[in-house]
Amino acid sequence: MTPEIKPLPPELERAVAEIRDETPDAEMAEAAAARVWLKLSAASRSGTAVIRDCADFQALIPDFRAGRLSEGRMALVRDHIHQCVACRHIYEGKVVAMPAPAAIRRANYGARWALAASVLIVAGATIWWAVNRNGEQTGHAIVQHLDGTLYKVTADGIHPLLAGQDLPSDVELRTAKDSDAVLQLADGSLVEMRERSSLSTSPNSLDLTIRLGRGSVMVRAKHRAQGHLYVDTGDCRVAVTGTLFEVTAGVKGSRVAVVEGEVHVTQDNQEKVLHAGDQTVTNSNVEPESVSAEIAWSHDRQMLARQLHDTLTQVHPPALRYSSSLLEHLPANTTLFVSIPNLAQYLADAQSVLGQKIATNPQLSAMWNARIGQAVDILRTASDYLGSEIDIVGEQDQKAPVVIAEQKRDGFEDFLHKKNLPFTLINHGGLLLFGPEREAVEAAAGQLDSGFAQKPLYAKIQESYRQGAGLLLWVDLAQAHTPIPGARYFSAESKQAGDRFVGSATLGFDGPRTGLAAQLADPSPMGSLDYISPDALAVLGFVVKDPGAIIDEALAIPQGSIAAAQHALDEERQQEGFDIRQELAASLGGEFAVAMDGSLMPVPSWKLVSEIYNPERFEATLQRFIDAHNQEAAQSGKQPIRMAQETVDGRVYYSIAQVNGGPLLEAHYTFDQGYLVAAPTRALVTHALQIRLAGTSIKHSGKFLELTPRDRHLNFSGLIYQNLGSSLAPFAALAGAFMPQHAGANAPQMPSLDNIKPTLFAVYGEPDRITLEATGDVLGSTLQNLMSGDIRGLAGLPFAQMTGTHERHNSYAGK
After folding, report:
1. I need a labelling partner for 64 at 20 to 30 A (CA). Which of 197, 206, 517, 758 fits?
2. Strands 150-154 and 172-175, how do they pair?
């Protein structure tokens, strides 16, 4: 590699100019010249060529390019090329006239002083070049990225820093709540700070120390020719160069987790060497945690997960199937039918694509472990023995379902034995039947070709194939025990339609819907959604034909003093003709929306919106019900319920709360545009009104509209929406902290909720069915979860037991 010629820094240029302009003391100059001349004479006697002029420098340029010169001569030639235009042109390949050799004047003191000055210049340039090449000072330490607020904490207070701003040394830097930052250090290393973390940096010679006061950092250390990057938490010190690792400093101690490379951790004068996937803690009271879970907060980790997901999206899912060679052979009494395309080609393609990606990315390699690869390989190998479709069938009162597939090639039974899979296998004329229960497999084999084609369920399934089948499920409810009167069948399907995946489920009836299912109204505009914000965590909305049916359900299971109040009202109804059900039903319009629309703590930000036709009648009915409750409470000694109202800016707000019940038993509401809007605080009610006025509700959110299914309907009979992932993740982590801890690779783990994507299920009430549709890839998501390391992604696939485990295992194994 050709050495890079760098300009001298301004400070060194000024020093050189001062040396040149300085008039030296004659005696000092004579002594310096004598020493230099003595060294040059010694070099001449030792056979080393003496550099006298430009011709000598130019003769050394080929060896300089090849790096064969000593360090001192490399520095001399580099400095000369920097100063001499003619030699620099020769070095750069330009043709110039060679300068005439200068006459040698051995006894000239001026020449001796110039040579001594040159030696000083070269020495300074060498020192500058060595520091610039091998030290950590290659640039400014800056705030590279900032999401939220980063403070500089000094004696006179805290001061916010901005993205792109220089970072001070030996000064505490602290991220605020819900904030994270990426710092680029002077040596090029990157440090990602989690929220509520605090650190400072201290350069020392060739080393750089990060002093982590509290919180978590993800460090991508740059490779160094000399020196180290250290992270000091007070109870341990981590020494690294060129690796990716995470360090957390907490109240109980510290934890170090390595993603890539090698780190040395020193604690109590003892050193541990950690490699990728390893971790250590400084307190025996801190249980190990998987590296995957430990770094889940990091954007670096999330970026890797997205890379893995994006890689898997390049793999095309199995094609739709428009017919089935197995369907007509099924047992006549089949009540459960699940059809799955053969996954051999998908799994092979996924392994190939992942293999190429992992080979070039050691971080992705760390996310992929041998256990995942083994499970996927078992699935792929098993699929190679089977035909293009795999069906799971169940009969009424059958203990376990049975898998049926065409035999593609011999050897499946040997495969099961080698993998020690406890399945009973029967080959029935080229049809393979297998499952965990021998009796079920033998019963299914005896009922093949017994007339399933004449059954109503057969015709329903055939219709699904004519429209193109992906992952398909049918259940005959006529022969099953179901609590839904009149329900005839249930079906669910996931497939790719155009450029998107869709999932659907249908509950079908023999004729018009009956029972509670008949109360779901036809698809209708839902004005209640105008009061729900786009940031809602969960929404349940529905429209019913008869609000009285909803009241019946609400009053069917009363408890405590509420039940007593209802009993008192029943007696009053008999005496005065007052019917609470009738009064409330006459007030309600039949449209409801319940949402979690805000923070979950300390008081859940629930919201209830209900269509109201007669607010005065509703308020009078509610007041009468509460009066009856309070009368009963006074006799039983229980807490009464208080009602109040106030007028703010011309609007009447109502409140209802149990006396001494706390904020969790308090509700505020008002009436607006034919709707009752209720929430735990008046501020939330006011905010709901502002959302409607501004036209910024969830109905106008692009994220919400993208999730709506592509179908013929403009409105919904009901909808179920969730965007819970990021909000529930802290609670899952808190719950995990109180779970019993188990050691070992097979220890159960709390599921990660960080990657739960928003989902929307649209519900449509039709004359003889209720249909639920959603935009989402059920089959593809299942397979991607599997390939990404979530063994539970096998759920629903016919080979779940082939993994040899029913538990989830982390991508990283804590050590």
Report:
1. 206
2. antiparallel
The band of 368, judged by pLDDT with boundaries at 50, 70 and 90, is low
Does 193 lie in the same domain as 110?
A: no
3-state secondary structure 466-483: HCCECEEEEEEHHHCCCC
Residues 451 and 373 in one domain: yes
**Residue 551 domain-assigned?**
yes
Under the banding of pLDDT at 50, 70 and 90, the label for residue 585 is confident
| 780 has a pLDDT exceeding 50 | no
Coil, strand, or helix at residue 597? coil
- The larger pLDDT score, comparing residue 36 to residue 409, is at 409
Per residue in 740-768, pLDDT tens?
444 443 444 444 444 567 888 999 999 99
> Which range marks the domain in which residue 192 is found?
142-297
Which range is least confidently modeled, 28-32, 176-180, 459-463? 28-32
Same domain, 549 and 618: yes
pLDDT top residue among 752 and 282: 282
Residues 6+ apart with CB under 8 A from 118: 79
CA 757, distance to chain mean position in Å, is 9
Q: Are residues 206 and 88 in the same domain?
A: no
Euclidean distance between CA atoms 225 and 133, whole angstroms = 8
Joined together, the tokens standing for residue 12 give 């060194």
> Are residues 572 and 719 both part of a single domain?
yes
pLDDT at 796: 37
351 plus 497 within the same structural domain: yes
CATH of the domain at 252: 2.60.120.1440
User: Do 506 and 577 fall into the same domain?
Assistant: no
Burial 398-424 (b: 16+ CB within 10 A, else e): beebbbbbbbbeeebeebbeeeebebb
Q: Is residue 293 part of a domain?
A: yes
User: Do 561 and 702 reside in the same domain of the chain?
Assistant: yes
* pLDDT for the residue numbered 797: 37
Beta bridge partners of 403: 392, 434
Q: Which residues contact 684 (CB under 8 A, 6 or more apart)?
A: 597, 598, 605, 607, 668
Domain boundary among 275, 297, 319: 297
Torsions phi, psi for 492 (to 5 deg): -145, 145
Q: Which amino acid, 82?
A: H
Give the CA angle between residues 78, 83, 88 to the nearest 5°. 70
The helix or strand, by DSSP H or E, that contains position 620, with its residue range, turns out to be helix 615-636
pLDDT digits (tens, 9 = 90+) for 589-629: 889 999 999 888 788 899 999 999 899 999 988 888 888 88
